[in-house]
Amino acid sequence: MTGDPTSAADPAGHEVPADTGEPARSPAPAVDELAFDVHDLPGGARAALEAVLMVADEPVASVRLATVLGLPTATVEQELDALAAQYRAHDRGFELRHAGSGWRFYSSPAMADVVSRFVLDGQTARLTQAALETLAVIAYRQPVTRGQVSAVRGVNVDSVVRTLAARGLVVEVGTEPSGAVLYGTSPYFLERMGMTSLDELPPLAPYLPDIETMTGVDGEPEVRA
What we know:
CATH architecture of the largest domain: Orthogonal Bundle
Protein name: Transcriptional regulator
CATH topology of the largest domain: Arc Repressor Mutant, subunit A
Largest sheet: 2 strands, antiparallel
CATH class of the largest domain: Mainly Alpha
Distance between the termini: 88 Å
Organism: Cellulomonas bogoriensis 69B4 = DSM 16987
Keywords: Cell cycle, Cell division, Chromosome partition, Cytoplasm
CATH superfamily of the largest domain: Winged helix-like DNA-binding domain superfamily/Winged helix DNA-binding domain
Oligomer: single chain
InterPro entries: ScpB_csome_segregation (IPR005234), WH-like_DNA-bd_sf (IPR036388), WH_DNA-bd_sf (IPR036390)
GO biological process, one term: chromosome separation
Number of domains: 2
Radius of gyration: 28 Å
């Protein structure tokens, strides 16, 4: 036994901590130390956020950005809001928006014609007009079956729906009692559209027929009220 009042000896003579009446303390969690202080970087936190978002190929959640930069989430969200406002206040060709699950850079809507010309010029993987029309019907009238979409468009849409599904823009969301598969848009669709909710779609739905009035085609049963 030693003179240390915070230790004692067990029957085998080994020293063990004495009971001081205080609850045992858990060891401090390991800290993932950063190799940098974001405040020491040129431009500080805002410049760091710009750099990360510039290389991101999908929206990044503010929580993840906070982890990467070693800052509180609230601070990161304030900086993101400030950046977004800064871009809006100037004639920029891009803007920072919260869409889907996080933040991402998007081209400015004012530059839509220029961007469309660049994207469509010589691009072979763009969606066809038929695919765009089919996607619009699914977006505004989901959940819908292929037969219901065909009833709106007046043509068979099986191959088009398969193409949209392969690109991750539409997904299966259920089935009708008849067994027909119901389709809806995916989170990726919202991301590509720069939206967080289907409520942000332009008011086009009133010009489409109601689901109850659509007659099924291609072997699917009629759907009526």
